[in-house]
C-alpha cells in the first residue's frame, strides 16, 4: 500500500499557496515556521516531486504544486465535511459555522438575529465574514465558507438557496428635491434625475437597476457603501435607491432625507446559499428559519 500524505501536510501546502510566505502560512496553521517547512519537505519527499519554488525573495507553488494544491483543498474540505456531518448528527447548529454576508445586509439584519440565535444554540460558533457577493461565492465554492447570506437573484450553479424575505427598494432624496413632493416615484422619474448607486461589484447596483427596469448604464457609480451613498445624497449630489432593510435598520439616521415608495414596486430577495454537496443542508435550513421574520436592529 502506497504511503499517503497527511492532512496536516496538505494543510501546510494550501496555507503556503494562500499566503506565499512561510511565516504567515505557519501562523495561520498555528505551527512554527520550521515545523511547516519540515512538513512540506516531507510531503515533497513522499510524492517525489518539487511542489514549492523557493527563492530568497519569494515562495510560490510550481505548476505541479498548483494542481496538488487544488486537490488538497478538495481533500481538506471533504475531511471537514466528515467532521461536521458527525457533529450535526449529534446536535444541529453546533460547532463552527463560517457565514459570509454581503455589506448591504450584514449591519442591518445580523444585530437583530444574533442574540436570539446565540440563546437558542449556545454551542454554535458563528464566524462571520463580510464581503462582496463574488468573493463570498468564491470562498463558498473553495470551502473557506459554509454558507452565505446574499441578495437574489444571482447565478447559483452548484448551490442550494433558501429565500428568506423580500426587501423592497425605496427612493431616497433631500426633502426639498422636486420628487419629494410625489406620493410615489416612477421609472421615468428615476431615469430623468441624478441617480447615485453603489460602485460596480456591489450586487445591489444591478439588482436595483434590474428591478426598476432601468438600463445597466443608468445611475452614477459613486458609493462604496450605503452609508457613503446616503451622505452623498444628503450633501445634494443626487438621489438614490435604498433597500427597505437598510432604511428600517437606521441607514438614514442623522440625516433629513426622505423616502418614497416606487410606483412600480421593485425589490431584491434575501437568501441563504450553501454548496449542494454539503452534508449540513438540514442544518442550514434551520439557520434560514431562524433568520426569517427577524426585524432589523437600528444602527447606533
Question: What does the model show?
Answer:
There is one protein chain. This protein is an alpha/beta fold and 300 residues long. It folds into 2 domains: 7-85, Arc Repressor Mutant, subunit A; 95-300, D-Maltodextrin-Binding Protein, domain 2. 42% of the residues lie in helices and 22% in strands. The protein has helices spanning 7-19, 22-28, 33-47, 63-90, 106-120, 133-142, 187-191, 203-211, 226-234, 244-248, 281-291, and strands at 52-54, 59-61, 95-101, 124-130, 147-152, 159-173, 195-198, 220-223, 239-243, 258-260, 267-275. The strands form 2 sheets. Strands 3, 4, 5, 6, 7, 8, 9, 10 and 11 form a 9-stranded mixed sheet that branches. It has a two-stranded antiparallel ribbon with strand order 1-2. Strand 7 (195-198), helix 8 (203-211) and strand 8 (220-223) form a beta-alpha-beta unit. It is elongated, with a radius of gyration of 23 Å.
Outline of this structure?
With about 300 residues, the protein is of the alpha/beta class. Helices cover about 40% and strands about 20% of the residues. It is elongated.
Please describe the structure with a list of short key phrases separated by commas or semicolons.
2 domains; elongated; single chain; disordered C terminus; 300 residues; 42% helix; D-Maltodextrin-Binding Protein, domain 2; nine-stranded mixed beta sheet; two-stranded antiparallel ribbon
Amino acid at each position: 500500500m502506497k504511503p499517503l500524505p497527511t492532512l496536516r501536510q496538505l494543510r501546510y501546502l494550501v496555507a503556503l499557496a494562500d499566503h506565499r510566505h512561510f511565516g504567515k502560512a505557519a501562523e495561520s496553521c498555528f505551527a512554527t515556521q520550521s515545523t511547516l517547512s519540515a512538513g512540506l519537505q516531507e510531503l515533497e519527499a513522499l510524492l517525489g516531486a518539487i511542489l514549492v519554488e523557493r527563492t530568497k525573495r519569494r515562495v510560490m507553488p510550481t505548476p505541479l504544486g498548483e494542481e496538488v494544491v487544488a486537490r488538497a483543498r478538495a481533500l481538506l474540505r471533504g475531511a471537514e465535511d466528515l467532521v461536521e456531518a458527525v457533529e450535526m448528527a449529534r446536535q444541529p447548529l453546533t460547532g463552527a459555522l463560517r457565514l459570509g454576508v454581503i455589506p448591504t445586509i450584514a449591519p442591518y439584519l445580523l444585530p437583530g438575529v444574533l442574540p436570539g440565535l446565540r440563546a437558542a444554540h449556545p454551542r454554535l460558533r458563528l464566524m462571520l465574514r463580510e464581503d462582496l457577493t463574488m468573493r463570498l461565492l468564491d470562498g463558498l465554492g473553495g470551502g473557506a465558507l459554509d454558507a452565505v447570506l446574499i441578495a437574489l437573484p444571482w447565478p447559483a450553479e452548484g448551490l442550494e438557496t433558501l429565500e428568506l424575505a423580500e426587501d423592497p427598494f425605496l427612493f431616497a432624496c433631500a426633502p426639498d428635491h422636486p420628487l419629494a413632493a410625489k406620493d410615489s416615484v416612477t421609472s421615468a422619474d428615476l431615469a430623468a434625475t441624478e441617480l447615485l448607486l453603489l460602485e460596480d461589484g456591489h450586487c445591489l447596483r444591478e439588482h436595483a437597476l434590474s428591478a426598476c427596469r432601468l438600463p445597466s448604464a443608468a445611475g452614477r457609480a459613486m458609493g462604496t457603501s450605503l452609508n457613503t451613498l446616503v451622505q452623498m445624497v444628503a450633501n445634494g449630489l443626487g438621489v438614490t435607491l435604498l433597500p427597505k432593510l437598510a432604511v428600517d435598520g437606521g441607514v438614514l439616521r442623522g440625516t433629513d432625507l426622505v423616502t418614497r415608495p416606487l410606483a412600480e414596486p421593485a425589490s431584491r430577495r434575501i437568501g441563504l446559499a450553501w454548496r449542494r454537496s454539503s452534508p449540513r443542508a438540514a442544518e442550514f435550513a434551520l439557520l434560514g428559519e431562524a433568520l426569517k421574520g427577524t426585524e432589523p436592529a437600528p444602527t447606533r
